[in-house]
Every structure is written in C-alpha cells, then in structure tokens.
Amino acid sequence: MNVLVVYAHPEPKSLNGSLKDFTLRHLERAGHTVQVSDLYAMNWKASLDANDSLERLSSERFYPSSESKHAFENGLQSEDIAREQDKLKWADAVIFQFPLWWFSMPALMKGWFERVYAYGLAYGVGEHSDARWGERYGEGRFAGKRAMLVVTTGGWESHYSARGINGPIDDLLFPIQHGMLYYPGFDVLPPFVVYRTGRIDDAKYAEVSEALGRRLDTLWTSAPIAFRAQNGGAYAIPALTLRDDLAAGQVGFAAHIARADEGVDEAAEEATEEVKQRAEANSSTMSIA
C-alpha cells in the first residue's frame, strides 16, 4: 500500500523526528511504499496568498476560494501545491504527525492544509440540492483513503481526560479529524497520542515505539471513528442539523459520532449504501489520476 506521512517538527533529533523515522522503517519493512512530506525540511510556504496561482483570475481583489478554483481547474497552481496534491492522490493512507502546540497543529502544517486543499479537490465538490449538500463529511475526493494523526504533547494524559484541565483530547482534535480529514472523505482512525514527552527515557521510548508499530500494523484493519455521514440520512438538509431521534438531548462534538447501540432506519441504510457506492467509484477514479 502507499502511505504518505505529512510531518511538521523543526528538529530532526527530536522525539517527533525519531518517531517519524521509526514509522518510515516499520512501514517499509512491512512492504509498503512511503513518501514523507517533511514540511520544515521542505521550507514549506505556510501562507495562502495570490502567489499560489501562476495566473490570477482577478487582479483587483484576492478571493481565496475563487482563485483556488481557477488555479486548480486550469493547471495554474504553484508547483509545490500540485506536487503535494499528487501525493494525496497516490496515497492509500495518510499519517499526519505533529506536536500539539497551543492546542492545535504547528502553523506550517495548518498552512499545508490551507494551500493543498484546493477548491474542487477537498471542497466545493458535488451537487447542492434538497437531498444532498455537496460531497463532504463521509464523501469527497479522498473517500476510500485512510488517515491517522500521530500527536505528541508535553501534558499528562490526565490533563486531556474527560474532566482534565486542558479539555478532552478527542474534543481538541475534533476540528482536525472531523473537519479537515472526514470532511473531504477520509476514513479517520483513532489518533495515536504520546503524552509527557519531556519524560520519555529509553524504556518509555521502547514502549511508545512498540505501541506505534502495532497501530501501523493495523492501519488497514482498524475501525475508523464512526463519524456520521452528512448525506447518510442522519442530518436534515439543508439545515444540516442532526435528526431529533439521534443522540437525543446530546449536544457538542460527541453527538456527531454514532454509538454502537444505535438503530438505523431503512431510509438511512439506503442513503448510507449510496454514500459507500459513491466513495468506491471516486476511489477508483483517484487511483488512476
């Protein structure tokens, strides 16, 4: 299988650097083909701006989405953007590895998403009607591909627990996993999180790398997070609010993850099957792109 690792840490000798190298060796030894986008080593340009297009749609004002669409549709994107998009099309799975800085990813990686996720590739696709609201949240260009976060943080695991001072780690990562990965169609695996990075000694590193190896071995068999498909019958369109009978009385991020004990009505099952068929067709198209 083809695996892309998008990696952001400025120090090659860091824990992150060592884990990235471990991931590369482990996957290659298992017979997979791996590409690494080391954003700091690449001197990746983080800011999305008018220079991302070789030929502007308008010279009067810069509208990011319309300029992105124009450049993507007409082969006018800057070379670095097009190269990363080719890697995404090539990959069967993508691992995003980064340290948790100020409750999110480093700015360089955020800029990777802003520039590489072009209009027509990661968003702005599919029909908008009374029955559908675009191909997103379970559909999209990356349907059929898998994604996983590898995240390090200096805080204790208890600091990121359900009642921890920093907030639950699943809530902190929800905008990334649901909004940046599931939105364009990835099947998103539970994250691999390393806590208390300042206390990693040789024994702890051996434990962490062994656990990471097990996760990498199940990259294609682990069940993804059960995010609810937008066009699978769970949401009213066009309001895109959750049906009243699902997660009744529950609000917030967790309401958008299906519980194992929930029943699914016949209409929702049919809609979900349609989503799967679209994902399979789109995956076949992407594989030959």
UniProtKB/TrEMBL annotation:
Coiled coil: none annotated. InterPro entries: Flavodoxin_fold, Flavoprotein-like_sf, NAD(P)H_dehydrogenase_qn. GO terms for molecular function: NAD(P)H dehydrogenase (quinone) activity. It holds the Pfam family Flavodoxin_2. Residues 265-289 are annotated as: Disordered. Residues 280-289 have a biased composition (Polar residues). Keywords: Oxidoreductase. Residues 1-212 form the Flavodoxin-like fold domain. GO terms for cellular component: cytosol. SUPFAM superfamilies: Flavoproteins (SSF52218). PANTHER family: NAD P H OXIDOREDUCTASE-RELATED (PTHR10204), NAD(P)H DEHYDROGENASE [QUINONE] 1 ISOFORM 1 (PTHR10204:SF34). Belongs to the NAD(P)H dehydrogenase (quinone) family. This is NAD(P)H-dependent oxidoreductase. The lineage of its organism: Bacteria, Pseudomonadati, Pseudomonadota, Betaproteobacteria, Burkholderiales.
